[in-house]
């Protein structure tokens, strides 16, 4: 990191010892399922200065067991309900093909501009940064060898044409190279929907995503039970990821165990 500029603020770090203590602190906090040494290397690779790294809004240990939502940053009512293990939103959802979700960072001002720069202004260099964040997340939450395939949430053809690239396909490629799990181009988006940020209300978002995806068929996947990890940038209501999981689940030739991993929650 000492020879590069911070992707968030542009500050060039002159000496390693300026961020060494911060890297060590995060490595200790995140090394639950992997070794401290491995997590230290992953954190140290993040192209962030000491200040931005220290302020990184990592989700704490107390989370909803279903969606990965942080209990610490919810209202008082949710804090009172935390013994239920699942948040109120998750308890209101019926049976789902999605086993659960985990996210690394809270979606706040720290990451909003960076994600917007990547998704909407085409700064593809940030794929490496977000890939590193997902690598941290997968080693934090899951066991080695827990998944057979990575599947990025696809864009509708019109949205893909507007952006010129699928941001999560690039990030999935980075994660795949880091952990040795292949990416499958297994889903297609069959329904054009408004951006979730432009849809008001949880119910509207959930309804808009119904039947929005389809499984690509046998060519995309072998006829055997598979453990699939869906990848997306943000988990908001979870409607997108649940719709993806349902599209996979509908294919009778494949009986899959499906989870999702997101950069932000």
From TrEMBL:
InterPro entries listed in its UniProt record: ComF/GntX_DNA_util-trans (IPR051910), PRTase-like (IPR029057), PRTase_dom (IPR000836)
Question: What is the annotated signal peptide range for this record?
Answer: none
The organism's superkingdom is given as Bacteria
Mind telling me which CDD domains this protein's record contains? PRTases_typeI (cd06223)
Protein family per UniProt: Belongs to the ComF/GntX family.
PANTHER family associated with the record: DNA UTILIZATION PROTEIN YHGH
The identity of this protein, by name, is: ComF family protein
């Amino acid at each position: 990191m000492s020879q590069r500029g911070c992707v968030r603020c542009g500050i060039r770090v002159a000496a390693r010892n300026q961020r060494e203590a911060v890297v060590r602190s995060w490595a200790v906090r995140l090394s639950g399922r992997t070794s401290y040494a491995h997590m230290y290397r992953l954190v140290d690779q993040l192209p962030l200065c000491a200040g931005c790294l220290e302020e990184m809004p990592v989700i704490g240990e107390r989370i909803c067991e279903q969606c990965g939502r942080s209990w610490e940053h919810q209202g008082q009512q949710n804090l009172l309900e935390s013994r239920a293990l699942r948040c109120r939103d998750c308890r209101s959802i019926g049976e789902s093909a999605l086993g659960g979700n985990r996210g690394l960072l809270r979606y706040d001002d720290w990451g909003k501009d960076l994600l917007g720069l990547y998704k909407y202004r085409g700064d593809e260099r940030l794929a490496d940064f977000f890939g590193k964040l997902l690598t941290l997340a997968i080693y934090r939450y899951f066991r080695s060898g827990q998944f057979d395939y990575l599947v990025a949430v696809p864009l509708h053809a019109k949205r893909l044409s507007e952006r010129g690239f699928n941001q999560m396909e690039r990030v999935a490629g980075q994660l795949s190279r880091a952990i040795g799990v292949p990416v499958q181009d297994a889903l297609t988006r069959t329904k054009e929907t408004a951006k979730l940020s432009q849809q008001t209300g949880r119910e509207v978002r959930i309804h808009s995503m119904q039947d929005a995806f389809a499984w690509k068929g046998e060519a995309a996947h072998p006829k055997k039970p598979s453990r699939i990890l869906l990848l997306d940038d943000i988990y908001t209501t979870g409607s997108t990821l649940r719709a993806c999981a349902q599209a996979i689940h509908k294919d009778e030739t494949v009986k899959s165990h499906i989870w999702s991993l997101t950069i932000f929650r």
